[in-house]
Automatic annotation (TrEMBL), chain A:
It holds the Pfam family Proton_antipo_N. Residues 1-20 form the signal peptide. GO terms for cellular component: plasma membrane. GO terms for biological process: monoatomic ion transport. It is found in: Cell membrane; Membrane. This is Multicomponent K+:H+ antiporter subunit A. The chain crosses the membrane at residues 30-51, 82-101, 113-131, 137-154, 166-189, 209-234, 246-267, 273-295, 302-320, 326-350, 371-393, 405-427, 459-479, 499-523, 574-594, 606-624, 631-651, 657-678, 699-720, 758-776, 814-836, 848-869, 881-904, 924-946. It comes from the Bacteria. Residues 697-793 form the MrpA C-terminal/MbhE domain. Residues 69-114 form the NADH-Ubiquinone oxidoreductase (complex I) chain 5 N-terminal domain. NCBIfam families: PRK12648.1 (NF009288).
UniProtKB/TrEMBL annotation, chain B:
The lineage of its organism: Bacteria, Pseudomonadati, Pseudomonadota, Alphaproteobacteria, Acetobacterales. This is Multicomponent K+:H+ antiporter subunit C. The chain crosses the membrane at residues 6-21, 28-49, 75-98. The keyword Amino-acid biosynthesis does not apply. It comes from Roseococcus suduntuyensis. The keyword Transmembrane helix applies.
């Protein structure tokens, strides 16, 4: 089998198995277990196949193109360390699958469980085999994710959800830091390939970015391996099913952080920073974890804290910057995985068969489950470091390292203390559960589990004993492979043996054993009292601090920031926007320099000066009167608009002037129609004194307005006195006729060169018209606007008082002359519209202008004759006009596709029509007709919808008068 | 000439900005209209102020910047005029609907007691 196939299938098989398991029926427990077990065993076999190459010092490597543009390849790489971890992941995985088959209830959706477990196994294999830093970070996150899913497997319980959330938050935050750290390393080295990175240790350690990279990488490793102060997620992860605790949270997942530290040990370790950070974290975790473990009443809680403590021990070993320490660390990783997994399984068996994990309730199980009891006893003894078991040997190595680490007395003492603690909690686990009087009031009657459920425990405990008795013959070669793959030539000489003669470490071991037993006896009274939590540091609960931090970040801080920086007041928001815009403009002017340009200004024409005097007066008047005299303000606004219009005419923009004039008319009509529904506002001078706050606010706004005005004036002057850049003007002027077939360049730009913009614009206009229509359909006028206006009331009263008159006659009489004229003018205006439309391509005009003219013709009829009269005679269907317009404009654009031209390509020719003569026929004209139709439809739709409100308002008013009870809320 | 139009743009902007900061919706809609005049004029003015040089060609002719004004700002402003009309219409109806729903014409939908 080729290397690449072997490595790829080792990573891919578990994921494929997960996919297959997820497709199984919800309760197919056996099928899923066989599938998962099969995958794990195949994985183990694959790992074993690689042994000959690895044992001869070779490295398996497979490379696949991933993102070649970035020089990033998907690299799988197996050396001794990766081989050892892959074997552990698949081997313990297979045992856990067997165990889980019996542990999981058939009521649970077991295939989902195995799917997650397999996916986790795949992520682990991918992680340990990663030959590329980016890829490593990716699989790292995957393990966090599947750990989250597995902790939350029983998601109907609050504890599972909380535990999963905490674990993901902590480890994913760490993973993010790790990713940043790995990117930094990649930046330092210039490559993300692991082989290159491992060969550039000196470059990394001497780089100025070494410390940030180290801190970030360690944040990732220490969170994942539950080191103080990030340890608190691990006990909460115990809400997961016990097989998960055995597999993820003791044997594999939590070792990933250690794996990473071992992996990067040759390039990152060896500095003071490494020693202080890693060593301190390890030392504190070792002691705190062991101390808290003693006082746990939950079996799994005890094991969780003991796991934390042992992880701390390994971290401390790695932090000592000694090669022997590294060897001891790898050895203890193996030993811990063996005895802790079996202890978790034993705890699960106790829980499964007796119904509780509370040490205070359990007792004397040795009589009902003797076999399990003995297995647990051996495993716990290994954990406590009793001689002739694997834990003893690695603990001896630890003591030796602690003694030789630079004359610090703290280390050996702490090591001995933690070791004594571990004896105490191991004793508590065994003595509290299996010895003493028969248990009372257990949820179930305890009995031995099925033989196959105990089988994985037996295998692991056998491992503890074999390694403990014959370390060099059993685990020796594998440990050597792993250590050699990390240290290479620098691998120290070490001896794996049970008996090294009577030396200091042995004495320390004996003291720790004796001290632990004494401590357990001394604590009996306290432990029996059943108080929760460890003495002295009970209040120092990591989870509470974590929750507080989260609440502060996601709630209090956010609220405070919102209260400080946010406002719901539009005025303040607008003020802020304007001030920022002014500041930005001011900064740009100050930065780049501003001033009048090089052109000599043209002489001032008195006429235009006078026109603008009027215009400025109108603008200021509109600003002055908009609050209390709205109608006057609308008129003044119109005046300002007319001045703008005149300016356009004056300075060679007839199209703009035409459009501005027409828009001015339509806007004024629109605004006047709207005035009716606004509240009356009376200006009573001196009624209430203006407050100081208001005055200061107005002064501030005035300052902003004056600054903005001055700034715009200066900017406009500066722009106008510079020669305009010839960007596109020449292009359009030269091609308007020769390629667009029209002499009115502005119109040719709109319907030909930039027709796509225009198409978008008419869609916007149509959407606005529909929105206006929709908003007005549900329009509810305020109650004080409901009544008929005073003038109409007077007219109606006059009409009603006389028997020969009908309501509305007076209005018709008063507007007799205008109405006759308007009706006469209707066809004339329509012809004007058509004229403007047809000549638009060559002369000022075009679809927009023509459409506005036509809609003015229609709205004039409404204004003069009233909605009812007009609609009896002239039925405008605005929606059809709009639809036809859009179809026409879009259709012309699409038609060019049939001739193999891009969207909206135009064509033009001249046609000889009888009597009329040569007529330009451009396809752009059809497009312009579409624009025309849409503008007519949209404008009329908006104006009519607004005009109709008066009619509806009257109806509501009348209904309210005649039958007051009929006007119930919600009735249309 | 340039100075007159520049001052005109400044006055329109100042009036518009002042109204934009007022508390009543009708004042804001007036302010937006005034501001859009100013902006349209400003965009238009970037092509330079020319008299008697409308960008309308002789039939069959080829235009030149020497005899014709820059048509591009004009085309842009033409679009802007129509769009500001649509904006004004939409805003007017929104303010009417808001006034009907909230009973006030304050921009925040409720009166403040200061």
């Amino acid at each position: 089998m080729s290397d690449s196939l072997l490595l790829l299938s080792l990573v891919a098989l578990p994921f494929l198995g997960a996919l297959a398991a997820s497709l199984l029926a919800t309760h197919a427990r056996n099928a899923a277990a066989y599938l998962a077990g099969g995958v794990a065993l195949v994985g183990l076999a694959l790992v074993w196949t690689a042994y000959p190459t690895i044992s001869s010092g070779g490295v398996l490597r497979a490379e696949f193109a991933w993102v070649p543009q970035l020089g990033l390849n998907f690299v799988l790489r197996m050396d001794g360390l990766a081989w050892l971890f892959a074997g552990m992941v698949t081997g313990i995985g297979a045992l856990v699958v067997v165990y889980a088959r019996y542990y999981m209830s058939s009521d649970d959706p077991v295939p989902r469980f195995f799917a997650f477990l397999l996916a986790f196994m795949g992520a682990m294999c991918g992680l340990v085999l990663s030959g590329n830093l980016i890829q490593l970070a990716f699989f790292w996150e995957l393990t966090s994710l599947f750990s989250f899913l597995l902790i939350g497997y029983w998601h109907h319980t609050q504890a599972a959800r909380d535990g999963a959330r905490i674990a993901l938050t902590v480890t994913a935050t760490g993973g993010f830091c790790l990713f940043a750290g790995l990117l930094l390393i990649g930046h330092i080295v210039g490559s993300h390939d692991l082989d290159v990175v491992l060969a550039s240790g000196d470059a990394i350690r001497e780089h100025p970015l070494y410390l940030p990279a180290l801190v970030l990488v360690l944040l990732g490793a220490l969170t994942k391996s539950a080191q103080f102060p990030f340890h608190f997620w691990l006990p909460h992860a115990m809400a997961a099913p016990t097989p998960v605790s055995a597999y993820l949270h003791s044997a594999t997942l939590v070792k990933v952080g250690l794996f990473l530290m071992v992996r990067l040990w040759p390039v990152m370790a060896g500095t003071d920073a490494w020693f202080w950070i890693v060593g301190t974290a390890g030392l504190i975790t070792l002691l705190v974890g062991a101390y808290i473990a003693i006082f746990q009443h939950d079996l799994k809680g005890l094991l969780a804290y003991s796991t934390i403590s042992h992880l701390g021990l390994i971290t401390l070993l790695l932090g000592l910057n000694s090669q022997l320490g590294l060897v001891a660390a790898i050895f203890h990783i193996l030993n811990h995985a063996t005895f802790k997994a079996s202890l978790f399984m034993a705890a699960g068996i106790i829980d499964h068969e007796s119904g509780t994990r509370d040490i205070r309730r359990l007792s004397g199980l040795n009589r009902t489950m003797p076999f399990t009891g003995r297995l647990a006893l051996v495993a716990a003894a290994a954990m406590a470091g009793v001689p002739l078991l694997n834990g003893f040997i690695s603990k001896e190595m630890f003591f030796e390292e602690a003694l030789s680490a630079g004359g610090l007395l703290v280390l050996p003492l702490a090591a001995m203390l933690a070791s004594a603690f571990s004896v105490t909690y191991s004793l508590r686990f065994i003595h509290g559960t299996f010895f003493g009087p028969d248990p009372e009031g257990l949820p179930r009657t305890p009995h031995e589990p099925p033989a196959w459920m105990r089988f994985p425990v037996e295998i692991l405990v056998l491992g503890c004993i074999f390694v403990g008795v014959l370390p060099a013959a059993t685990v020796g070669p594998f440990l050597d492979l792993a250590a050699r793959s990390v240290l290479g030539e620098a691998t120290p000489n070490y001896s794996l043996a049970v008996w090294h003669g009577v030396n200091l470490p042995l004495v320390m071991s004996m003291i720790a054993l004796g001290g632990g037993v004494l401590l357990y006896m001394a604590l009996q009274k306290h432990l029996r009292s059943g108080i929760e939590g460890p003495p002295l540091i009970r209040r120092l609960e990591g989870r509470r601090i974590f929750e507080r931090a989260l609440v502060f970040l996601s709630w209090r801080l956010a609220r405070r920031m919102e209260g400080l920086l946010g406002t719901r007041r539009l005025q303040q928001q607008l003020r802020l926007v304007l001030v920022l815009a002014l500041a930005a403009g001011g900064f740009a002017a100050w930065h780049r320099g501003v001033g009048p340009g090089n052109l000599v200004p043209q002489g001032v024409d008195p006429v235009i000066a006078l026109v603008w005097l009027v215009g400025a007066a109108c603008a200021l008047g509109a600003a002055w009167q908009a609050k209390f005299h709205r109608f006057a303000a609308v008129m003044l606004l119109g005046g300002a608009g007319l001045v703008v219009c005149i300016t356009f005419v004056w300075f060679s923009a007839p199209d703009l002037a035409l459009t501005q004039l027409l828009v001015e008319v339509v806007t004024t009509v629109l605004l006047v129609l709207g005035l009716r529904w606004l509240p009356k506002r009376q200006d009573r001078p001196g009624a209430t004194g203006v407050e100081v706050v208001t005055v200061s606010r107005r002064l501030r706004d005035l300052a902003i307005a004056i600054t903005a005005g001055l700034g715009m004036a200066a900017l406009a002057f500066a722009v106008m006195t510079r020669t305009p850049p010839d960007l596109l003007a020449q292009h359009f002027l030269a091609r308007a006729y020769t390629e667009g077939g029209g002499t009115n360049v502005v119109n040719v730009i709109l319907v030909d060169f930039r027709a796509f913009d225009t198409l978008g614009e008419i869609f916007v206009l149509g959407a606005v018209a529909l929105t206006v229509f929709a908003l007005l359909r549900r329009f509810r006028p305020a109650s004080d606007s409901l009544e008929v206006p005073e003038q109409q009331r007077d007219q109606s009263a006059w009409d009603e008082a006389r028997p020969d008159r009908r309501e509305g006659d007076t209005v018709a009489d008063w507007l007799l002359v205008p109405s006759v004229l308007t009706r006469l003018l209707f066809p004339v205006i329509c012809i004007l519209a058509v004229h403007l439309l047809l000549r638009g391509h060559d002369q000022p005009g075009g679809g927009f202008a023509a459409g506005l003219v036509a809609s003015i013709a229609i709205i004039l009829q409404y204004m003069i004759g009233g909605a009812a009269w007009t609609e009896e005679r002239l039925r405008v269907l605005p929606l059809r006009w709009m639809g036809a317009g859009l179809l026409l404009a879009g259709g012309v654009g699409l038609a060019s596709l049939f001739f193999g031209m891009p969207f909206l390509t135009t064509y033009f020719a001249y046609a000889e029509l009888p009597w009329i003569g040569r007529v330009p026929m451009a396809s752009a004209l059809i497009f312009d007709i579409g624009v025309f139709a849409l503008v007519v439809g949209a404008t009329v739709l908006m104006l009519i919808a607004l005009a109709h409100q008066s009619v509806r308002g009257h109806r509501a008013e009348r209904r309210a008068e005649t039958a007051p009870r009929a006007l119930v809320p919600g009735e249309d | 000439m340039e100075l007159v139009v520049a001052i005109g743009i400044g006055v329109l902007t100042g009036s518009g900005v002042w109204l934009l900061l007022r508390p009543r919706t009708f004042q804001v809609i007036m302010g937006l209209s005034l501001l859009s005049y100013a902006v349209n004029l400003f965009i238009f003015s970037t092509g330079g102020l020319r008299t008697g040089a409308a960008p309308v060609l002789e039939p069959g002719g080829v235009g030149d910047l020497a005899t014709h004004a820059d048509p591009l700002p004009q085309a842009l402003v033409l679009t802007a005029i129509v769009i500001s009309f649509a904006t004004t219409a939409l805003f007017l109806v929104v303010l009417l609907a808001a006034r009907g729903l909230t009973g006030t014409d304050h921009v925040d939908g409720r009166e403040h007691d200061r």
